[in-house]
Design goal:
The strands form 2 sheets. The chain has a 3-stranded antiparallel beta sheet with strand order 2-4-3, with no helix packed on it. Helix content is 31%, strand content 26%. The longest helix has 16 residues. Strand 3 and strand 4 form a beta hairpin. The two termini are 26 Å apart. The chain is built from 2 helices and 5 strands.
Length: 72
């Protein structure tokens, strides 16, 4: 997976189109709500995907943490 993500040429417009299509299909209901929660969670090390120093709403400062939660 790591090799795939790092060595494939991505077309940003095509990815955006695919994501938009997916969102419209799954959240196209007028009652739908999308909540993006960027709090993440604290992690030690950098071996897990997405672990890096980033702003963490959980602790209110920049820390080594992972993840963005998206709920729909």
């Amino acid at each position: 997976m790591h090799r795939l993500l790092n060595r494939i040429d991505w077309d940003a417009e095509e990815v955006l189109s695919d994501v938009r299509e997916y969102v419209v299909e799954h959240l196209g209901d007028p009652e739908a709500v999308l909540i993006v929660d960027d709090t993440g969670f604290l992690k030690n090390g950098t071996a897990s995907a997405g672990v890096q120093r980033q702003c963490s709403g959980t602790v209110g400062r920049t820390e080594n943490c992972q993840g963005i939660g998206i709920k729909y």
